[in-house]
Design a protein that fits this description.
By secondary structure, this protein is α+β, with helices and mostly antiparallel strands. Helix content is about 15%, strand content about 35%. The chain is elongated.
Length: about 290
């Protein structure tokens, strides 16, 4: 139907909003802000989907585009290519009989039917296209039994939890700070401090753990070794929201970031409070 696999897509625009992207120096950039960390895999999937579109069926002797929801399509995607060509891809109504979606592309007078999954790839927003930072808790599959200590440091006091029971109890609320909910994708040191309350003197929480890696011994034989690693987050300002939980209680939270990052994340107030309670934690004495 359409094969642009030998050309390079240089521009991609989804709908009439702010989802406009440019391919510059072998890298996709969001036109709204080049610093935005785009998910490369999602943009690549979009590109590959449009580069070679395969129809499930073609409408024989099509009538007016309005008959298929294509005069005012539910979704349009515009693409430009390195060979100077450009196309508008239109997604229309869904056929009630076979469940396929009507589709048309500029320069082709035919009306096609596609699997609805094709359009779903482009039904997104900029927040969903955020490429997550690597979180050691996730990438290293950290479990409580691999943790050697958790150090909580505030401006007034600190406490290091090293006993197994304390680590196991603290690990669950701390794991909520796994970079899963971001609020600001780029904040320099000044914005971190002034807007989010993250900077010198911030509460710091450091989790120390070990991972098992394969290495060679002195004889060149393969062996496993335990390698120490750390994961540190800096806690910022408290903030309120209009959200409520199932019991009607407000869902407020705190800003935080991982050490060395320019991305600001949020975590719920209850998780933070459950962590900070351990500033007064002491292990039970063994009998």
């Amino acid at each position: 139907m359409l094969d642009k696999s030998k050309a390079t897509m240089t521009q991609l625009s989804i709908g009439d909003g702010d989802l406009k992207f440019s391919y510059v120096n072998d890298k996709w950039l969001w036109d709204g802000d080049e610093r935005f960390p785009l998910d490369k895999e999602q943009l690549s999937e979009m590109e590959q989907t449009l580069n070679k579109v395969s129809a499930e069926a073609k409408v024989s002797e099509p009538g007016e585009l309005s008959e298929y929801g294509l005069s005012e399509p539910s979704l349009t995607v515009d693409a430009e290519y390195s060979d100077g060509t450009s196309y508008t891809y239109k997604f229309g109504d869904v056929n009630d009989f076979n469940g396929y979606q009507y589709f048309a592309v500029t320069g082709d007078s035919n009306v096609y039917m596609l699997d609805q999954a094709v359009a779903e790839i482009f039904k997104t927003d900029i927040k969903s296209l955020f490429e997550k930072e690597d979180c050691a808790l996730v990438s290293d599959s950290v479990q409580a039994d691999k943790v050697t200590s958790i150090l909580i440091e505030t401006a007034e006091k600190s406490n290091e939890i090293t006993d197994g029971d304390g680590i196991k109890e603290l690990f669950t609320p701390f794991y909520a700070m796994n970079l899963s909910s971001w609020e600001d994708y780029y904040a320099d040191s000044e914005e971190m401090a002034k807007v989010y309350g993250i900077g010198e003197g911030s509460t710091k929480i450091t989790l120390s753990y070990t991972v098992t890696e394969t290495a060679a011994d002195t004889d060149g034989n393969s062996t496993t070794v335990k390698v120490p690693r750390t994961y540190t987050v800096l806690l910022g300002n408290f903030f309120e929201t209009d959200e409520t939980d199932e019991d009607g209680n407000p869902v407020n939270g705190y800003f935080y970031t991982q050490e060395g990052s320019t991305v600001v994340y949020s975590v719920t107030e209850d998780k933070v409070n459950s962590v900070l309670e351990f500033l007064d934690y002491t292990p039970e004495e063994e009998e």
